[in-house]
Amino acid sequence: MPALHLGPLRIPWPGSAAKDPYWDAFINRAPNDARNALQEVLAHAAGGAVNPNRVELHTPEITAAHLKELATFLGAEQIGIVGLKDAESADAAESAESELGTRKSELPAERYPFAIVCAVKADYDPRTAPGVGGQVPVRNGIFVSFTLAAYIREMGYRATNQEPADHERLAAAAGLGTLNAQGRLVSAGRGARIHIADQVVHTDLPLAPDGTA
Fold first, then answer.
1. What is the pLDDT at residue 161?
2. What is the C-alpha to C-alpha distance for residues 37 and 42, in angstroms, rounded to an integer?
3. Is the pLDDT of residue 18 over 90?
4. Would you say 66 and 168 are in contact if contact means Cβ atoms under 8 Å apart?
5. Sequence-distant contacts of 172-176: CB under 8 A, at least 24 apart
6. Is there a contact between 26 and 133 (Cβ–Cβ < 8 Å)?
7. pLDDT tens figures, 40-67
């Protein structure tokens, strides 16, 4: 495919064999000012409150299928749901709070029964391409995760994309691919040209998991 000409600036499409210093900088040169990196803003965006009025759900299988359709609409290439073995339900947490006579802030951090991990396409590896263009998969992944968590909260269930998580391992547990020698997920469809969203959605929305971890 020929390069796109914009006056004196010649920008090749991603994957073009053309060598262009502007494009190389766009992909590989980290921003001079971190405020020009949108992913830094998105990564720390605070989520809203949980809707006190829960929606009526279908079965966990149907709910999971709907959630995957939404993730695809938002730009995810793949989405997997993992059942967390050491999870604690919201009801159990509330019961512990009542029995112990403590405030929620004094209890151990709440554990969620499910983790939702998303993968987006990556023409460039964001771990080796720190430029504004090279970090597009990171921004796309954060956008999908944040929006899924927000949607779940609007349904009346707890969800956060701010919990620390081993996203590559969870992706493998969900069946999105296998881990290579470097611990990076390799998918059947796109190989290594995929980015697992750094932010994993943790939720107590009843879902049918694709695997456990």
1. 92
2. 9
3. no
4. no
5. 173/80, 173/82, 173/211, 173/212, 173/213, 174/80, 174/81, 174/82, 174/117, 174/209, 174/210, 174/211, 175/80, 175/210, 175/211, 176/78, 176/80, 176/117, 176/119
6. yes
7. 777 778 889 999 999 999 999 999 999 9
